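Thread: "does anyone have the structure for this chain?"

Original post by V.I.:
We have the sequence but no experimental structure in hand. Need at least a predicted one for the grant figures.
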Amino acid sequence: MNTSQHALNLEKNVTSGLTPQQIVEQLDRHVVGQKEAKRSVAIALRNRWRRLQLADDLRHEVSPKHIIMIGPTGCGKTAIARRLARLTDAPFLKVEATKFTEVGYMGRDVEQIGRDLLEIAIEQTKEKMRADVEATAQKNASHRLLDVLVGKDASQETRQSFLDKLAHGEIDTKEVDIQVADHGTSGMPTFDIPGVPGAQMGMINISDVLGKTLGGGRTKTLRTTVKEAKSLFFQEESEKLLDQEKAVREAIRLTEENGIVFIDEIDKICGRSNRAGGDVSREGVQRDLLPLLEGTTINTKHGTLQTDHILFITSGAFHVAKPSDLLPELQGRLPTRVELKPLTQEDFVRVLVEPEASLTRQYTELLKTEGVDLVFAEDGIEEIASCAAEVNASIENIGARRLQTILERLLESISFDAPTCAGTQVLIDAAYVQDKVGSLVKSTDLSRFIL
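Reply from O.Q.:
Generated one for you, tokens below.
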């Protein structure tokens, strides 16, 4: 495949073929406010598509403009990342900076980010390739299941009869014993091999060695329903039909050209110059991130992975540390800086009603399963938002997350009694909110521990 054809194939896999306006519209359906952050993310995604339209020589020179989002907790940083993951077809990985340690210390080093991203890309690629072999895999899975149900020596009429029952789901709940491949690690731990990044070693299972030597693999017996057995057989047959090497090659290309990594809590690895002691590996993690953002080669069990064109989006609240506390070299590799604004009482009202999966809708639908009709009055929503803003101002500003705390407290008795209240309607108005949480909001000591 030549480079231009490869770019064309990648273009088909990039949802950022959407215009920036369309991307912002999609994010607006789920995240309230923060237009500047949405615009920056939308431009970065669109630039992925633009780069693929360039001539080969220039395409390799264009590097992604990494983003740092700065804003208080609960203002929408993580929500934007979560929606971005669902919006894009590209490999997407969200990690917390605090999960990593400097190379040489016990823990995960930052190169694991690239390996994890590649694994996601491989699974995405296989999922798309399975569509081409689905019909054959379904047929093979059905025949394997028939062998379990009626035996290999059954007459053609008997097999056809059971095949019809399988197709119509008549025996889905019947339990059967099946043999499936055992991909487990038998609970034995694995360890990173020093000096060989991406390689692991563990205890050797002698049955694995003998099985591979004799041309077979380990299997295990499962007792399950016919429906589940058919699904397991389909997965195994699909894997047999897939070109594994091709899937890995395509996944590596997809990761290198269109991979996106969201690193949250970047402020937690800032080492302030006026603080002594502390976590000695914080600055080391920042140093380890530098080549990853600039472009480096990561060794994985599937081959080498180049990070030159992977887009990194970082975020942090920076309550204690400041963005300037990051290493100057790291700041330079995050050229797009976006500040997210704290949410106001008016924003809280919008958070409660505007998103497609708003909190009020979630609680309404949850209680509807018990036959309880939960209705939020307009003044009730205003009062909930007012309580959240007041508690945030008096104790600690945790943004929109305060709404969940207040709603849980507000609906505690309703949720508990719901199974015995089927067919009833509950109105959440301003008076109800004041009765349930008003006194807690006014008492700083109580709200500090309860809300």
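V.I.: this helps a lot. DSSP finds 19 helices and 13 strands in the chain.
O.Q.: and The longest strand covers residues 175-181.
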